[in-house]
Amino acid sequence: MKYIRKDVEIRRFLKWSKIVRGKPIQIRLYELIYFELLELWVQLNKPPLRRLIYETINSDDYDEKFVKGKIFQQYIDEILETPCEDKSGYYIPDSREILSEVNIKEFYDVKFLIKSELNTVIMIDRYNAIYTFCRLYEEWSLKKKSEQIDDITKKERFDVTKDLPLKISTQR
User: Fold this and answer.
1) What distance in Å separates the CA atoms of residue 141 and residue 145, rounded to the nearest whole number?
2) Of 110, 120, 125, 153, which has the maximum CB count within 10 A?
3) Does residue 84 sit in helix, strand or coil?
4) Nearest Cα to Cα of residue 165 among 127, 124, 137
5) What is the 3-state secondary structure of the chain?
6) Percent of all residues in the chain with a pLDDT value above 70, rounded to a whole number
């Protein structure tokens, strides 16, 4: 993540993504995949999306991060470290949201589904899965950003830009 912190636009996006409210469970996990691509994109000096995804699916740590689900489990573990005092759920301090036990179960269900999509030896299927998850995250983010830009009352930050640093849908 040290490479990402150099670019102001990326820092703003990361800050926005932490505090934005109302993320569905699957979007929270797709976001982790998008962040992995974003970090590699900056490290490799912003290559085209196709090369970026191929570098990701051919990397040495692909199995560890995606097939075994290490990045997803780390995120779930971070959430589990912050239970509410009244035991009603788990508090996410950045976005000031509370996730219930049902949400945690949904995390595990979605994690299993994502891992099963990414656990294939057929490279084109891996590519399509990564692309699709990132595109879905991008669509959700752009819709959320559009709502915030159009309606000042829904804006959690005043430096929200209308697009994402790594554009998925415009490249293929």
Assistant:
1) 6
2) 110
3) coil
4) 137
5) CCCHHHCHHHHHHHHHHHHCCCCCHHHHHHHHHHHHHHHHHHHCCCCCHHHHHHHHHCCCCHHHHHHCCHHHHHHHHHHHCCECCCCCCEEECCCCEEECHHHHHHHHHHHHHHHHHHCCCCHHHHHHHHHHHHHHHHHHHHHHHHHHHHCHHHCCCCCCCCCCCCCCCCCC
6) 89
* Calpha distance 83→90 (Å, rounded): 4
Q: Give this prediction's pTM.
A: 0.87
Mean pLDDT of the 162-169 span: 81
Q: Which of these, 169, 140, 143, 149, lies nearest to 27 by C-alpha position?
A: 140
Per the model's pLDDT, the better-predicted residue between 12 and 140 turns out to be 140
Nearest 5°: the CA angle 101, 111, 107 is 15
Tokens 């179960």 belong to residue: 105
| Cβ–Cβ < 8 Å for 90, 80 | yes
